[in-house]
């Protein structure tokens, strides 16, 4: 009898796996499957709840590392260790018990590096040593789940991905814990009241935004001059420009004089050439996560983190393939099911066209370009009208975008006619460009943007002699615009290199970017929470705190997106078995040593700004103790307590109550007024949210007051 235990990353994933089998029993910590053709003795599915385990904090290694002191740096543990995450002990113990009873364990966490990290970190902390297999699927549909469990892979590749993820996690710990303390403490010596959070990837990302801020701030608008012609032909008016663009108006005037041209005087022009070209644009590549994030940000202003969340929801609803992919291609296997479903997909999207070709095209179908995951495409599951109605507007938008992009590869090219007219006036050529849509083709599948007013060129003939007026046109140079969140994803992916065509961006795997496809949106959210950037009307701006961070790291490797990208490239090598985790960690240690040497000089040039943060004083009185009346309630790191504890006052208050943080202001109100207003954000034991006021009893214990409205 073989006892198989399957670890999913989260309960929703475990449920999706269980849906592909018959369930024998369910508990709070696992689902038991009935025996069937795949698991002859049945199987047990258990799960994590987010990260069940995490790296230990500095003070877990050494008590003296709890306090922020320069002489404690660098903090480099002899051996990095994990611990059970706060509040997750019960689930960890359940997983550990199941692992002990197993004959074989299946890693069924997300099929990416972080999924490998989550699984092996848990396995390592349980101390259990059993054979491990890897589930590798790109869809949660029942037949794909069953097929995946029938074809479980060995864990050779899985272990390499774990090595890569662990190297990243440890190096991030080293940089974050050491650099944050290092620079914050030096800045506090200069009078800064807060602290900076510094990260291996987040800091160079902020620096990218800072560089754009400096470009805008230092930009000086300057005039430039061109010669414009206005023409009246037999069938209509049009405008054209001579091939000159100068900051020096005198040079433009000299060209006018050379051709004996004066402003406001009528001339007769000659149409020397009418060049008409039919141009075709192929449908866009299939979506990777970053292209989907960029398009959704441009179309609906969705933040990248929201796009990932929506795509993940659609994956769990079995409508989209795995979202955390950096690939724009599919294999012949996916293409074969897409071909069969073209009509169904069209009905779902509300479109109707005859496919141009039902054969795979290497622009979209290329197995040699697919590594871990293929592009984001619709699954075989065709949603019912009821299921579509149940989708939120955001989910419907993202689903339709992926559906349209997938169907577009079967559609005709977008065709337009480009016309260039050359009109000479006194032998000075003027050029006019016009565009006329011939066939919308694949573009008809997408929401049509409001068309900008384009000056359509009139029908003209070579040799025609239109009336002409010429003048010097003055324009002003424009500053670069702030990044949008969608552009920021692209800039991170290219490590700050400018990409010319944003709408059809093709970034090769060899390009070294900041972060990974799965982590970039999270990094943006982190730097928002750290108050380094703000986003208003989709424009990303840097804050005073962000500017101070960038001035602090300026000149160090933390300000170099390209250098950080090279670190990411080495991490990928670890995942491919060509790099060493220990080498990477050792080099990160050397990098920290270098930062410690550079920090005093780096901080010297920083202008301290008021970022609205006050330096935290742990022993600062919050309020007079309501019990002894002599001492004061102070922050004791993990709880609040009376300063007169040595004199025998035992009053303490928790920092968290029913899942909600209690702030110093709440404690002050309780001590002074004996009750608070109704507060939101509490959670019951079964994770349900509730609101209540708090009151202080005579024995100075905090109680819920549900009577207060």
Automatic annotation (TrEMBL):
Source taxon at top rank: Bacteria
NCBIfam families membership: PRK07726.1, topB
GO BP terms, alphabetized: DNA recombination; DNA repair; DNA topological change
Protein name: DNA topoisomerase
EC number of the protein: 5.6.2.1
Family: Belongs to the type IA topoisomerase family.
Record key words, sorted: DNA-binding, Isomerase, Magnesium, Metal-binding, Topoisomerase
GO cellular component: cytoplasmic replication fork
